[in-house]
Design goal:
Blueprint: H1 9-31, H2 37-72, H3 79-105, H4 113-146, H5 154-180, E1 184-191, E2 202-207, H6 218-231, E3 235-239, H7 247-254, E4 266-269, H8 272-276, H9 280-289, E5 293-294, E6 298-304, E7 307-316, H10 321-324, H11 334-337, E8 347-350, H12 354-363, E9 369-372, H13 383-390, E10 396-400, E11 404-408, E12 426-433
Helix pairs in contact: 1-2, 2-3, 2-5, 3-4, 4-5
């Protein structure tokens, strides 16, 4: 029998990841009711950070072997050039692994440079792993189909990590430049079934996935608020993942939201990341102090400025992660959210995740419009494909049935990694049209 010491490094990392995952299951099963919420929150975040890092070790060993060990065996590699390269790869991997820890310990009004560097390395790490795997797969396929006629070619083998690194650097720079630009303003006209004619051309500005935290701070939020105010919306809605941190820690960064002054109100629903903070109640109180109304499985009647008899129902549901995490008093409850919203009037629903939008339509097909976020449009290559296949609605406008539309925002900022590849941050200006 092979002992643990005899296992390859990747196998040891996989065993460690399994052990951490098992500890997460035990904690949620047996300690969930015994620990105070804040303690449970920190324990879960620490466990998830350790779990992700142990999984990343498998990729890091591969990166090290591909970019360091291989070249160290090459006679062409001079010690003068090789040592700085070795240090650079080590620092790169160390920063990528430390990125998740910054979420626990380095969150303030403005991002720390270390956090930005760490998450940038994490993004580059993901791209590099993809290209090393893809190029390696191409090489193995070539050897398989070429059979015995394929000869080992050291120069071609050496080109694989070099090409992967070059592509990673180019795409990382492109992603950073794209994400550093202000969000694009996307104007969309959506016909809303049973919207009163008096409310035709009502303007709703949709924000989603701002992710205030280690890499998004007050300056970026203030820019977003200025752009929203310039659009002069009748209503502003924030459909979740506003934050990745506790309210007290990042309170100064949230202040610009108090400048939103939409005449028919500003509304908010939770995303999955609000529940990861385990601080939803304090966030609700903070947002209320800024004249932003959380829709906690509830609704409001949005009346026409010219006639109180002309109105539609604006409803919001808690994110489905509230159910998964057993967050007391929270979780998606569509019946409660739509209480009093009859099918005689238009219904606009705020639901963070597209999968929640799908569930809502299965239960209440009379909903006129659902506004969601969560997907980030994949945020960056190569994560785009996963986000596309995991969500029933990916990004943009969808028509469901005869009278229902779903709009999924690609996000107003980004989560952690300050990069966007194959997607663009967006502030959505929605013009409601009466059919």
């Amino acid at each position: 029998m092979i002992s643990f010491k005899q296992l390859p490094l990747e196998a040891k990392a996989a065993v460690a990841a399994g052990a951490v995952f098992f500890s997460i299951v035990l904690s949620r099963s047996f300690l969930a009711e015994q620990l105070e919420r804040r303690t449970r929150h920190w324990l879960l975040r620490l466990q998830m950070t350790l779990f992700v890092n142990t999984l990343m070790l498998i990729g890091s060993f591969h990166v090290w072997r591909s970019t360091v060990t291989f070249f160290s065996r090459s006679s062409a590699a001079s010690s003068f050039c090789f040592m700085p390269w070795k240090i650079a790869v080590f620092v790169f991997l160390a920063l990528a692994h430390s990125s998740f820890f910054t979420l626990l310990f380095l969150v303030a009004e403005e991002p720390y440079f270390f956090s930005l560097a760490a998450y940038t390395c994490l993004g580059a790490y993901i791209i590099l792993i993809f290209f090393l795997f893809a190029l390696g797969s191409v090489e193995q396929a070539y050897k398989f189909f070429a059979g015995r006629s394929a000869k080992a070619n050291s120069s071609r083998t050496a080109m694989k990590p070099v090409l992967a690194v070059v592509l990673t650097v180019v795409l990382t720079v492109m992603g950073l430049l794209n994400a550093s630009q202000p969000p694009t303003v996307n104007s969309v006209e959506i016909p809303v079934h049973k919207l009163p004619p008096a409310m035709n051309s009502l303007k709703v500005v949709l924000l989603s996935d701002i992710h205030l935290g280690p890499t998004v701070g007050k300056t970026k939020l203030a820019m977003i608020v200025r752009m929203v105010k310039a659009l002069k919306p009748d209503i502003t809605v924030i459909v979740g993942d506003l934050t990745d941190s506790e309210a007290e820690i990042i309170r100064p960064a949230v202040e610009p939201l108090g400048e939103l002054n939409s005449p028919l109100g500003t509304y908010f629903v939770t995303g999955n990341h609000e529940y990861y903070t385990s601080d939803v109640s304090n966030w609700f109180e903070l947002l209320k102090s800024l004249n932003i109304r959380p829709l906690h499985n509830e609704n409001v009647k949005i009346a026409s400025p010219t006639s109180a008899d002309d109105w539609f129902c604006l409803a919001g549901v808690d994110d489905i992660e509230g159910n998964v995490l057993r967050y007391l008093g929270h979780g998606m409850d569509l019946k409660k959210a739509l209480r009093g919203c009859s099918s005689e009037h238009a219904i606009v629903l705020l639901a963070h995740q597209p999968i929640a939008a799908k569930r809502a339509l299965q239960e209440r097909p009379d909903i006129s419009l659902i506004l969601s976020g969560h997907t980030h449009g994949g945020q960056m290559f190569p994560l785009n494909a996963g986000a596309y296949f995991l969500n029933p609605f990916f990004v943009g406008l969808y028509k469901v049935g005869q009278n229902t539309f779903v709009y999924v925002s690609p996000g107003t900022m980004y989560f952690g990694i300050p990069m966007r590849l194959g997607s663009r941050a967006e502030i959505t200006e929605i013009i409601l049209r009466s059919p």
